[in-house]
Amino acid sequence: MQLTPDAAHVAGGAAADREIRVQGLVKSFRGPQGPIEAVRGVSFDIAAGQTVALLGPNGAGKSTTIDMLLGLLAPDAGEVSLFGRSPADAVAAGAVGAMLQTGDLIRDLSVRELVTMVASLYPAPLGVEEVLELTGAGEFAAQRTQKLSGGQTQRVRSAVALVSDPRLLVLDEPTAAMDVEGRHAFWRTMREFAARGKTILFATHYIEEADAYADRAVLMAHGRLVADGPTTEIKARVGTRTIRATLPGADARTLQRLPGVTGAELRGEAVVLTCSDSDAAVRALLQQYTGARDIEIAAAGLEEAFLQLTADGAAASAPTSGASLR
Amino acid sequence: MNDSSRLPITYIRYELLRTFRNRRFFILSLAFPLVLYFLIAGPNRHVHDLNGSGVSAPLYFMVGMASWGTMTAMLSCGARIAAERAVGWNRQLRITPLSPRGYFRAKVLTGYTMALVSMAVLYVAGLSLGVSLPASSWLKMTFLILVGLIPFAALGILLGHVLTPDSIGPALGGGVALLAFLGGTWFPITGGFLHDFGQYLPSWWLVQASHVALGGHPWHTKAWLVMVVWTALLSVLAVRAYRRDTGRV
After folding, report:
1. Of all helices (H) and strands (E), which one includes residue B249?
2. What is the ipTM of this complex?
3. Do residue A108 and residue B22 have CB atoms under 8 angstroms apart?
4. pTM, full prediction
5. B25 to chain A, minimum CA–CA distance in Å?
6. A interface toward B at CB cutoff 8 Å?
7. DSSP strand pairing (A293-299 vs A241-246)
8. pLDDT in tens, B169-208
9. Which domains are assigned to chain A?
């Protein structure tokens, strides 16, 4: 039984609480114009039994971080500890399951055969039939892997990740290739699995997914961690709206003092207001600037929200760790 | 760790199952050599001393074709590895407890099983064309072929981790054809530059295994040296290629 030790660890206090430790990870790759710093010093801990979303736009360094966490990639600096062990040892002990971002199945085996093959590599796997049922792959278990639809392939991939009954499950953008229905089914399965006391880390660029399925979100942008907290808090921070309006001769500083406005920017005759409360802001704007026209209110794209957060993060950390800034 | 030194038997069983389900294997390492054997050796079945090699045509070509079929069988490991890498399966496997040693063993054993099937088919074909040897010679010949295939096991793994699925097909096809030609698969090379050069290739000594029919030992010191050097060199390169090959393809 794996539930008991995990539960005991959670109750055990702060040190044992931090089961997954990622400390100061750095990784750069050689690029055509010199080195590309994919990950620039990322640290976080995950307590056993938590479901954590690694949230960030494309190119934020999520997959590189995950590759280092799994031991697929050696970090230039920093350390990963999974349940007190190195990634290689944790993997060798069968404690880690993962669904990688890119990946397809090998051909010429039936779904059941493939899952059995993978299960045979682990010391204490789940039953093959149990996993097939849990992931909804049972309906087509006799089919050859090369004859599956995209959605079916994803289900089999999740079965491959779950069959070892891992303590830590890592999912790298698992739903990117799924339709809405497939997504719901997938997360139902993962919730069921998490309920067994498992630790789950999943990368996504859908903030809704982080909000709906994670206890906590770790935000990455440009290879750095820009926020870390309960998903509700994160959503409030990145869930900002922007107001765009044409307003000749406006002054950015006065605009910034409007209620609900956190930032103002002039772009020629247009102004762009970043808002924490766009309702209050638009009321105030129309009252004070009757000449404002072409008003648009938009939810900030995740990309934009991240950029905003990165800028905040850089500004906030500037006095203490200025050397790490570009 | 105890687990990592254990042979992954179930894993190997499914690896074999999927290999035998693949039609390409039957065509390339079984059907082609067999058909060519009957085409080449059939009309010459009564030639007792092929081009002065001292070996009868049916026996010479039996081993020649077996060397081709078994080389293809061993190297096709590389094609499967390249295909696995292309779909990211190589990375998926690395997050299982399957150790590199277990992985290599599974690949080599799969290659050898296929090679044995290919060899058995050609032995039967050879018998049907009148090849006749004492039991001890059959055994010795089989042993030499199996040893001679070791460098090809390493070469298959090496190429699989370096090439893409698109490029590995032509590379293996061309490579095997060249090695087979220089090794004397198609006809005995009895003199000149090719003779001197061929002796440094492992494929040469595979084909030479047919000389058991002449009595004595077909492999002398040079043969063993060639095998050891190629095996060592290719194994080091294969392990290095495997270690470096952790990234997304």
Report:
1. none
2. 0.82
3. yes
4. 0.77
5. 12
6. 63, 67, 70-73, 91-94, 96-98, 100-109, 113-114, 116-118, 120-123, 160, 164
7. antiparallel
8. 888 888 888 888 887 777 777 777 777 777 888 888 888 8
9. 5-95+166-236+304-316 (3.40.50.300), 240-299 (3.30.70)
